[in-house]
Amino acid sequence: xxxTMKLRSGATIPQLSVQEAEQKHYxxxxxxxxxxxxxxxxxxxxxxxxxxxxTYFFDPARVVEAPPELWYAPAQKTETCKLDSGVxxxxxxxxxxxxxxxxxxxxxxxxxxxxxxxxVAYTLRNDHSPIYFYDKKxxxxxxxxxxxxxxxxxxxxKLCKSxxxxxxxxxxxxxxxxxxxxxxxxxxxxxxxDLELTGVYTHDEILSISIVDGTGEVIMDTLIKPxxxxxxKQTEKIHGITxxxxxxxxxxxxxxPRLKEIFENxxxxxxxxxxxxxxxxxxxxxxxxxxxxxHKKTRCAANEFVRFQSEHxxxxxxxxxxxxxxxxxxxxxxxxxxSIADTIGCAKVWEKLFPHYYKD
Length: 360
Prior knowledge:
This protein has helices spanning 18-23, 29-34, 68-71, 94-99, 105-110, 161-180, 233-239, 252-264, 274-281, 288-297, 301-312, 321-327, 339-353; strands at 4-6, 12-14, 27-28, 37-39, 45-48, 54-58, 63-65, 80-82, 88-91, 102-103, 113-114, 121-124, 130-135, 140-141, 190-197, 206-213, 218-223, 268-271, 298-300. A hairpin with an 8-residue loop joins strand 15 and strand 16 (206-213). A five-stranded mixed beta sheet has the order 8-9-12-13-10. Strands 17-16-15-18-19 form a five-stranded mixed beta sheet, sandwiched between helices. 33% of the residues lie in helices and 21% in strands. Helix 11 crosses helix 13 (339-353). The protein is elongated, with a radius of gyration of 31 Å. The longest helix is centred in the middle third of the chain and has 20 residues, at 161-180. By secondary structure, it is of the alpha+beta class.
């Protein structure tokens, strides 16, 4: 039964003799070098040499032309040397080698790789002794060790499993204390808001604004007619707001005085993913000072949920508002992805995370 080797890419390649590889028209790196070619993909097979090194075979259909400067330096004759195996390798500068992904054994070791293939190029020291370069693509990545104890293989957060679990216990205790703290906030002065937009970029415009306070009272829930955008088919599929729905809606300028009044009377402004909402709502203010004052009031419910999730459910990777509500056992009030439903959901997530946030 033939042996196989698993590459870093996950591909498994068979062991073939030189004769078998030649019958399949596979090419060694030495042959590719002579043809001024470089492999563009993983090796397709391999063979083990008598000295324990590996010779890889490459598919001729998956090669590219080598950089011209590597072979055709006008004022420099290409120099080669022959290895004990009979393979001929080319001389190149360290800079050129790095551009090809070739490094010395010592450098690869620093990068946590072990060399198993023969050298693919070389350069000379001042005393004319050779320095060999090896292909990083065919080197074997060593398991990285824990940055805390240095004894075991990394598991998560650059820590081994035991160090990660110890660190997790500390972070969980700190996070639970943070969330259990009594903040003594006035419910009516804590506002939750959400925007629906024409798109995800800074030049996109607001289509709806919803604001709810800590008592659950709806302070504002309105559609907004954008100034410039006439259609938004991609986001329309998400929030369901059509151009016809906002044709007779107020503009952002129309609601700005009321928005400023609402924000002025708030102590805290919370949104799920505050950076996106803030990046659009800040433009109701004209000065950097006013925008900074608004930003100081903002809090991000998404960041708080991600912290909670990483401390209690480290295997979870998704952290959308829907994920947070499902994890915390919260039902949707209204149609998901509308600004009012998202705002109410955000308020419920916040109170689940911070059960002692308000005075009562």
